[in-house]
Specification:
alpha/beta; Aldehyde Dehydrogenase, Chain A, domain 1; Aldehyde Dehydrogenase, Chain A, domain 2; 2 domains; 6-stranded mixed beta sheet; 14 helices; about 35% helix; about 20% strand; NAD-dependent succinate-semialdehyde dehydrogenase; Ald_DH_N; Ald_DH_CS_CYS; oxidoreductase; Aldehyde_DH_dom
Length: about 500
């Protein structure tokens, strides 16, 4: 059994966490969770719907009333204990991620480091929430601006980073004094439940952090977005679902932060360090089997180096080891499910029919199931689906450009603007291009841009708000203005 792989079997939770209690049965039955690498049954979990969402929200409201009155130092101490427990149980949490999501253990351990960093960072930020004293317009007045926690928050999180996408939201929410109800993706609830177990061990009060299980996301999501006690919605996922959540939240005017889909361009100029570019492209494209919102979806290469770079990328991609993430040395795990594989195949068919060339890969892996070969496709153009839509798989399309202006125009020719990347050794070109790119984040001579200290988020249809950094906690705070009049001047 998979639970036997854990050192601490108490982290294998098979029920929803509501008001500090583990709920293993509901009136709505159960759903099954399978390992994407083997197809084997992992666990059966209870399905939560409206009643369970209501209970979690009401518990979160009760917990918020007390937690919001605690000192920043106390919140720091509790969240920091949670951070320490996540670090202590890193290997077990990584194993859970690999079992339910498929990514290689090495990447899963990296995700736990990343997830823990948000708890550590925002534990510290709890002590740094400050207001202002504003010069008044009258001698008898004093004007103050206070920052106060917004209240009950609801988080709907994706399957591709099941630990980090929770701590990146829960860390600042709890640090600000808020409570949070989490609806993790139905494909990856085990990691969320283990985080909930560690939160309880750390002293997070009952109801302050709840986790709803089940595949009835439409039902639970509808309650989270419409309930009057929920003051904020935070979501990471597709733009299509983000639009729906924004519409549903409009009736109660909730504060919303949305980290949505991307179509990240990666530009390689003719003066780039090609060794660095190859390494950066491989990381930006193939991390988590290409299933990342900031994955390089389009690699734009200058004409003069196109064939050389294409050859090197194809050779390196062919060397990547595909396999079960639990096996040491695996670099590319399975895709999340059959629908994801089918989408990759459809994008490839469209590209090939339009004249694109598959340099390496291009088909399901011999391992079968949800495994797909790392793929490099040349002679792609902006009219192809693979360049217009987020493929979300291990497929690297290569496009040509002739000059800087064309590269920038191609990069910006999308409704999305989450991440972008560029490789160049010309400082003027770097500044000029980075400022011109319509993206919330730009990686320069690197394919790794995620960090707890940096503001993560996009522009255009890639989202609203920022996560991480000193700006991230502001998403969970309201500003209250105090006008104090009637003060007498000193004699």
């Amino acid at each position: 059994m998979s639970v036997e792989l854990l050192k601490d079997r108490g982290l294998w939770r098979t029920g929803a966490l509501i008001d500090g209690t583990w709920i293993t049965e509901t009136a709505h039955g159960i759903y099954t969770l399978n390992n994407p690498a083997t197809g084997e049954l992992l666990v059966e979990l209870p399905i939560c719907k409206e009643a369970e969402a209501e209970a979690a929200i009401e518990a979160a409201d009760r917990a918020f009333r007390t937690w919001s009155q605690t000192t920043a130092k106390h919140r720091y101490e509790v969240i920091n204990r949670w951070y320490q427990l996540v670090v202590e149980h890193k290997d077990d949490l990584a194993t859970l991620i690999t079992l339910e999501e498929g990514k290689p253990l090495s990447e899963a351990r990296g995700e736990i480091d990343y997830a823990a960093s948000f708890l550590q960072w925002f534990a510290e930020e709890a002590k740094r929430v400050r207001g202002d004293v504003i010069p008044a317009t009258k001698p008898s007045q004093r004007i103050l601006a206070l920052k106060q926690p917004i209240g009950v928050c609801a988080a709907i999180t994706p399957w591709n980073f099941p630990a980090a996408m929770i701590t990146r939201k829960a860390g600042p929410a709890l640090a600000a004094g808020c409570s949070m109800v989490v609806k993790p993706a139905s494909q990856t609830p085990l990691t969320a439940l283990a985080l909930g177990e560690l939160a309880l061990r750390a002293g997070v009060p009952a109801g302050l952090f709840s986790v709803l299980t089940g595949n009835a996301t439409r039902a639970t999501g509808g309650v989270l977005t419409s309930h009057k006690l929920v003051r904020k919605i935070t979501f990471t996922g597709s733009t299509e679902v983000g639009r729906i959540l924004l519409e549903q939240s409009a009736s109660t005017i909730k504060k919303c932060s949305m980290e949505l889909g991307g179509n990240a361009p990666l530009i390689v100029f003719e003066d780039a360090d090609l060794d660095a570019a190859v390494e950066g492209i491989l990381v930006a494209k193939f991390r988590n089997s290409g299933q990342s919102c900031i994955a390089a979806n389009r690699v734009l290469v200058h004409d003069s180096i196109y064939e050389q770079l294409a050859e090197r990328l194809a050779a390196r991609s062919a060397e990547l080891r595909v396999g079960n993430g639990l096996q040491e040395g695996t670099q590319i795990g399975p895709m999340i499910d059959e629908a994801a594989v089918a989408k990759v195949e459809q994008h490839l068919r469209d590209a090939i029919s339009g004249g694109a060339r598959v340099l390496v890969g291009g088909r399901r892996h011999d391992l079968g199931g949800a495994f797909f070969e790392p793929t490099v496709v040349a002679d792609v153009n902006l009219g192809m689906t693979i360049a217009r839509e987020e493929t979300f798989g291990p497929v690297m399309p290569l496009l040509r450009f002739a000059d800087d202006a064309e590269a920038i125009a191609m990069a910006n020719d999308t409704d999305f603007g989450l991440a972008a990347y560029l490789f160049s050794r010309d400082a003027q070109r770097v500044w000029r291009t980075a400022e011109a790119l319509e993206a919330g984040m730009v990686g320069i001579n690197t394919g790794l841009i995620s960090s707890e200290v940096a503001p993560f988020g996009g522009v255009k249809q890639s989202g609203l708000g920022r996560e991480g950094s000193q700006y991230g906690i502001d998403e969970y705070l309201e500003i209250k203005y105090l006008c104090w009049d009637g003060l007498q001047p000193a004699d």
